[in-house]
Amino acid sequence: MDPPPPKSILDVPDDLLRLIFLRLDSPLWLIRAACTCKQFRHPIVSAGGAFLRLAATLHPPAIVGHYDNHRGRRVMFEPSSPSSAPIDVGRRRRRLSFDFLPRPPTASSSECSVADCHGGLVLLRSQLDGMPDLIVCDPLTRRYQGIHRPYPPEKEECYYCTGTFLLDGDDGSISVSNFRVMYQCRVYLYKGIQACVFNSAADGDGWSFPKRAANDVEEDYYYSGDVAGRGVDGSIYLGLETGSVKILDSVSLQVSKVDLPIHVDTHTSMIPHTSRFTVVHGAGPDPASPASTWIIHLRGEALEFFRLVHGSGEWVLEHTIPDLSEATRRLPNGPPEKVLRLREVDVIAGEAGTAILSVTARDKMSWLFSIDMAAKKLQVVPTRETYYRRTRGMFAYALPWPRFLRACRS
Prior knowledge:
Residues 6-54 form the F-box domain. By secondary structure, the protein is mainly beta. The protein is built from six helices and 23 strands.
């Protein structure tokens, strides 16, 4: 019998190629694989985008840097560490700047600042003359769209913005021509939170006012809360200072509560003992497992780490740091023994699977600490890691996972 012909890459079935491509943890690498040849492109673009949606749920966002709202300075982009970035470090600061806008945000952050980043888009809030109140832009394609902010239905002039963030379009995708913006404001005479949504695909001025659920009793806090992060499905986690978390569904705009087994006392009203929450994503236990999701609860100097159990929707308390002052003093180059209490503690999400803590003592000395979310190991961040030098007003910019790729005929 003649020996079987030698095998080549063209003989690998599509099912096996999909298993290989699911282990690519960057959308840039997945696009490069699809551009290599038709043999690679077919399993990626087939099934109406089902493979791309699955790949997006298995990997944490590929963060390439942070936009930083400096006090008294222009908005700056700080690249992430070169070892964790899927694109060239030297070109990112120039490529992801806002120099393509009619009037680049060079004034202080109180006049023009980043409000949110999602799906490769950046939302800017502006108080500069000659610029729209809100600007949605895509730094990669250098396109933008200006939006004039709405007014509450009561036409009251005494109101202020409490939060602004991006949402996917009606079809679940997002681009500079297909997006939604939720704008929260508190009306003084109304004494409640009024939310309105801008839809780029809607007629008229694009603004509408979603209705609350009929059985909702927390009118003042229905849409309120700081954005703690986003889920892999695009839902938004809203953290309240009172110690609770809600999820805003990005499609229906309905809000539901998150059942967190919080052990820290949240009934005290002493300032600064209010709750703050941060959502952090990390890789799953293996390349074919869904991305892990944690919620960090910070209250005073106590931290709690909750992990979402995949498939059940249950949150479990995975780790606790009851006294951050005591925990950090045990580390090399941490706060000295004379620092009995920390004056200020902030949590930001750094690279995928890592949380960054910024602590400030009463003598205004500050330190940065990193926590590996899988091992819960606390370490001092070297001073040369300057892209973490601020914790307030920082917004992580992640490469968007492609929702659809078209197969060319050639």
